Amino acid sequence: MKEQVEQIELLNQRLTDEYGLDTSTGQPIFRIVWANDQLEKRLVTETDLGVQLMYPEVLEMKKYSYLKDVYVLERLVEIDERELPGIKLSYEPLWVYKDAANNPLPPIWDATKFIVDTLYAALGRKSLRKYVEDTSQEAKDARIDKIQEELFGNETEVTDALTYREGIVVPSSKTRES
């Protein structure tokens, strides 16, 4: 686990180096976080049991109650101050690191950078020109396969079973000859 935390710290440092800090707060524009650890303040008008409150209250609640045991790429954005008075910026989810079967994936720099650059291209801030190369179809297919592997991982039943410690490795029955 310590190794994974160090990797996330390195990825967050790379995000800061590549995309910068908010000039007013000094917070990173992008960050990768563990979904289970994130809390946020919300303005609520009823209790968990559905009882209507006389006055809305601000409560600290799990930010990603719908996500478990995954990393999330977040972006610092301005929010409507009417939702939470006094709070002008919030980290909002941009990407959840999981495959098509909702299995968690470890964050990888190339995929993370691609996601952020795609967002910036959609906003008209940066071009994705560096991702477009005039080469053979085989090279294009190889790049697409690499990006898909980084974004969605190896989704075979055997690797998933081994990853989640549900599989068994049987050593080879061959013996070495001296």
Structure report:
By secondary structure, the chain is of the alpha+beta class. It has one domain. Helices cover 31% and strands 22% of the residues. It contains four helices and five strands. It has a three-stranded antiparallel beta sheet. It has a two-stranded antiparallel ribbon with strand order 2-3. A hairpin with a 5-residue loop joins strand 2 and strand 3. It is globular. The protein starts with a helix and ends in a 15-residue tail after the last helix. 11% of the residues are buried.
Q: Mean of the pLDDT scores?
A: 82
Neighbour order of strands in the largest sheet: 1-4-5
Secondary-structure class:
alpha+beta
Number of strands: 5
Topology:
Layout: H1 2-19, E1 30-34, E2 39-46, E3 52-62, E4 71-78, E5 89-96, H2 109-122, H3 137-152, H4 157-163
Label this structure with key terms:
178 residues, alpha+beta, two-stranded antiparallel ribbon, 4 helices, globular
What's this model, at a glance?
With 178 residues, this protein is an alpha+beta fold. Helices cover 31% and strands 22% of the residues.
